[in-house]
């Protein structure tokens, strides 16, 4: 199971993208996690200041 970013809560601060060990997160107006690359480690959710990242 991959993680998913809530676009309404994401502020595109960059905290998660810096922590993802497999570069599964892409930038934009809000960030998106590629479910094919995500290893479900949860590091991104742990560092998200707005709690926008949850298991999909």
The CATH level-2 architecture is identified as 2-Layer Sandwich
Oligomer: single chain
Class based on secondary structure composition and strand pairing: alpha+beta
> What is the N-to-C succession of helices and strands?
EHEEHE
First-last Cα distance:
6 Å
Short précis:
18% of the residues lie in helices and 18% in strands. By secondary structure, the chain is of the alpha+beta class.
Please characterize this protein's 3D structure.
This protein is α+β, with helices and mostly antiparallel strands and 56 residues long. The chain has one domain: Alpha-Beta Plaits (2-Layer Sandwich), CATH 3.30.70.20. It is built from two helices and four strands, in the order βαββαβ. β2 (25-26) and β3 form a beta hairpin. The radius of gyration is 9 Å and the shape is globular. The N and C termini lie close together (6 Å).
Short descriptors:
single chain, about 55 residues, alpha+beta, Alpha-Beta Plaits, two-stranded antiparallel ribbon, 4 strands, about 20% helix
How do the strands and helices of this protein lay out in sequence?
Elements (H helix, E strand, L loop, with lengths): L2 E3 L9 H5 L5 E2 L5 E2 L9 H5 L5 E3 L1
Antiparallel strand pairs: 1-4, 2-3
